[in-house]
Q: What sequence folds into this?
């Protein structure tokens, strides 16, 4: 499906949802916890993932490493239920407020962002944080 041709004014100020996928057919999706505001995961969506998310109310992504569509939590049961989807000014990135049904990260952490970068004596090191 071809992207609609919109003027900058229409894309940035209009009411038409016209996501702008990159050359690989993807857009970035940042998922935050609707309750706490914590960033849970950053992943990518293609048209099929976006359509599945909009239709089901459950967050779907395109796995670049596996080359397939997947619903977050399809095996663990830790789905992300959509509360709100926001799009940035040029419609090439999404922020999804979602309610998680358990840990979001495949490691079992509540968020995929469970480590902070700190400067150590030999350079940057990773320090676990409570998520």
A:
């Amino acid at each position: 499906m071809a992207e609609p041709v919109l003027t900058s004014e229409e894309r940035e100020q209009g009411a038409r949802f016209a996501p702008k996928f990159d050359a690989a057919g993807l857009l970035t999706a940042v998922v935050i916890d609707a309750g706490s505001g914590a960033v849970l995961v950053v992943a990518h969506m293609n048209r099929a993932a976006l359509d599945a998310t909009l239709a089901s109310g459950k967050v779907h992504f395109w796995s670049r490493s596996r080359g397939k569509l997947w619903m977050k939590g399809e095996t663990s049961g830790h789905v992300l239920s959509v509360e709100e989807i926001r799009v940035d000014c040029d419609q090439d990135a999404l922020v999804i407020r979602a309610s998680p049904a358990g840990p979001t990260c495949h490691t079992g952490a509540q968020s995929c962002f469970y480590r902070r970068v700190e400067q150590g004596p030999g350079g940057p090191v990773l320090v676990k944080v409570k998520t």
